[in-house]
Amino acid sequence: MPQMNKGGKFIFGKSVIRDDGTVHIPTQAIEEYGITSEKRVYLFTGSKITGGFCVTRKGLLEPSKLGHILAENADLQSYASQYGEFIKYKGRYYCWADISEAGQIVLTDEMMDFLSVEPGMQLLSIRSSDIAFTMGAKGPLLERARNYTGGIPMY
């Protein structure tokens, strides 16, 4: 999978939000983050520039320097909050969602409204850190990806 420019962000692929809200996570992101191993993931709001959402799982988030997010939000940590219910914590919003073995997440209409995404949109899967990856919805990186001629896998 490409780095669109030397030293730039690594791109796993592009995913289209299907009419039913389904988003397919690129295979390499699934493997690198073991993202399907717990059958549930955490989504949190992306940056103002990239939009979309970031994806992680409890086994990556809990032991990390960001583990306090779960420690201080028991309903999120235990999945007691409703599916897709965003909880505000220190300037970002977090929720949980189920993920299939094949790496599919279903965004409800409410989740899509909250994240300002909609069916038919392309999301760019970007390596962010060793804790999470981003499913970016806008910004300069997505624009560069649209013009990239090296081929980015579509999911």
Kindly name the structural category.
alpha+beta
Strand proportion, as a percent range, falls in 25-35%
Query: Whole-number radius of gyration?
Result: 15 Å
> What characteristic shape results from the CA principal axes?
globular
Query: What's the tally of helices?
Result: 6
Largest sheet: number of strands, sense, barrel closure: 7 strands, antiparallel
Spatial arrangement of strands, main beta sheet: 1-8-9-4-3-6-5
Poorly predicted regions: none
Distance between the termini: 13 Å
The tally of beta strands, per DSSP, is 9
Mean pLDDT: 91
Helix content: 10-25%
Element-by-element helix/strand order: EEHEEHHHEEEHEEH
Describe this structure in words.
- The structure is a single chain.
- By secondary structure, the protein is an alpha+beta fold.
- It contains six helices and nine strands, in the order ββαββαααβββαββα.
- The longest helix has 8 residues, at 140-147.
- The chain starts with 10 loop residues before the first strand and ends in an 8-residue tail after the last helix.
